Fold this protein.
Amino acid sequence: MIAGFIKFLSTFGPNSIKELSNLYSPIIEYEDPINKVEDLHHLSLVFEDLVRVFSEINIEVKETSSTDHTAFVRWKMTYQFRKKRIQHRRYKLSGIRYLGVDF
């Protein structure tokens, strides 16, 4: 579970978004400070929008912890906005993702 997610983060971009069905079930729960979705289709839309708005996206995995049914991944993302007026500034965002399996 965790190795595939780490690869997804490390190679994040339009091509990795196409691989979401290899990581997630069609019925999922995903929430961040801006989005809350409950299916794989809408999660794809969230990530596609991210790629549309930002460029130079780089996600570095900083730390992981996992058991048979849960995992935590701490990461740092750097990015730029695509709009020209703010294009040359790099931004940083850190986060922790919880992954779990429901039975």
Notes: The mean pLDDT is 90. The first strand starts at residue 30 and ends at 31.
